[in-house]
Design goal:
By secondary structure, the protein is an alpha/beta fold. The chain folds into two domains: about 260 residues, Carbamate kinase (3-Layer(aba) Sandwich); about 100 residues, Archaeosine Trna-guanine Transglycosylase, Chain: A, domain 4 (Roll), CATH 2.30.130. Helix content is about 35%, strand content about 20%. It has an eight-stranded mixed β-sheet with strand order 5-6-4-1-7-11-12-10, with helices on both faces. A five-stranded mixed β-sheet has the order 14-13-15-16-17, with helices on both faces. A two-stranded antiparallel ribbon has the order 2-3. A hairpin with a 4-residue loop joins strand 2 and strand 3. Helix 3 packs across helix 4 and helix 7 runs parallel beside helix 9.
């Protein structure tokens, strides 16, 4: 485990439930001040720090005197516009007191789905970190429509951690760690300190809710999904209590606080991290056992001969899932053919493609450089 003296890239996500006070939705200023002090201390130790902060909608609701979270997209966007500026002003005032520069970064899913924007986002983050700035990241709720949203800042933080190749992702929430059941309602809930693989949680009989606080959008389920995204990108992930941000220093020093998710082998390239974690699959290709072995064991490209079924409507250069005969995802990648052409050439050898399509296309359906093996296939 890394010691504090080692320079690390850290992504810290704090949820609305930690930033606000219960039913009122007012900001928990003491928690925010402690968070600012902790992140500034980490920067002074030489670490690169990114903060993913929820709270814009909650702060906007409190500012406008609303009794509950907005339900319509238009109202949510309006309230987020009110809250985002107020939240950033508070962060800037507190960080400035400690001499720490910050920058606001607002993202939508499009910024990470499109390759050129993904690369540009990466370069922006790297430049800010090299300048000693702490980027404060949030979803761009004021303009993002439903199909372009991450849905919650847990997922956003995992995507950012994957993007920058972070060493650690901290998910600060309203419980001190993961339990076998909700400790607030079940006194027999057992704490979980280490999770080697996210799939292990089913064996541990972990129960998770599907909703966070009154003012937030996340719940433990979204945090576990975020941990899955991050750990498969090689990022050690921790779920711990948001009311005590100073515990980050203790965790980095080796104290057993929170629940740690062990990182898996990091994908070989930034491009493969992008394919694995940022792209939304537009369809599925079912492949035979020979293709599964060629892809997963021999590291080969996918050929048309190995495809047994095409599902969904997608175009050339879209991302798709590769599934075995049982429907289990074994890989995902970027296709060289749209769904209609693949229906014509599936099951055929590559040298038959010109006759079947009337033009000479790529020999491979998905080249190995655009293919990422799924962790649950190993």
């Amino acid at each position: 485990m890394n010691a504090v003296a080692d320079p690390l890239t850290l992504v810290i996500k704090i949820g609305t439930s930690s930033l606000t006070q219960g039913a009122t939705g007012q900001l928990a200023l003491s928690t925010i001040a402690s968070l600012v002090e902790t992140l500034s201390a980490l920067r002074h130790q030489g670490h690169q720090v990114i903060l993913v902060s929820s709270g814009a909608v909650g702060v906007g609701c409190a500012r406008l005197g609303l009794a509950e979270r907005p339900r319509t997209i238009a109202m949510k966007q309006a309230v987020a516009a009110v809250g985002q500026g107020r939240l950033m002003r508070i962060y800037d005032d507190l960080f400035t007191t400690l001499g720490q520069p910050i920058a606001q970064v607002l993202l939508t899913r499009t910024d990470l789905v499109q390759r050129s924007r993904y690369v540009n986002s990466y370069r922006t983050f790297r430049q800010l970190l090299q300048l000693g700035v702490i980027p404060v990241v949030n979803e761009n709720d004021t303009v993002a429509v439903e199909e372009l949203k991450f849905g919650d800042n847990d997922t956003l933080s995992a995507q950012v951690a994957s993007l920058v190749g972070a060493d650690w992702l901290f998910l600060l929430t309203d419980v001190d760690q993961l339990y076998s059941a909700d400790p607030r309602s079940n006194p027999d809930a057992q704490p979980i300190y280490v999770v080697e693989r996210v799939e292990q949680l089913a064996d541990l009989q972990v129960q998770v809710g599907d909703r966070g606080s009154q003012w937030g959008t996340g719940g433990m389920m979204t945090k576990i999904e975020a941990a899955r995204i991050a750990t498969t990108a090689g990022v050690r992930t921790v779920i711990t209590e948001g009311r005590h941000p100073e515990n980050l220093l203790k965790i980095l020093s080796g104290e057993a606080l929170g629940t740690q998710f062990t990182p898996q082998a990091r994908p070989a390239s930034a491009r493969k991290r992008w394919i694995a974690h940022s792209l939304m699959a537009a369809g599925k290709l079912y492949v035979d056992e020979g293709a599964v072995q060629a892809i997963c064991q021999a590291g080969k490209s996918l050929l048309a001969a190995g495809i047994t079924e095409v599902e969904g409507e997608f175009e050339r250069q879209d991302a798709v899932q590769l599934c075995d005969r049982t429907g289990r995802e074994v890989a995902r990648g970027i296709v060289n053919y749209g769904h209609s052409d693949l229906e014509k050439i599936r099951g055929h050898h590559s040298d038959e493609i010109p006759d079947l399509l009337g033009y000479r296309g790529a020999d491979t359906v998905i080249h190995r450089d655009n293919l990422v093996i799924s962790t649950n296939s190993e």
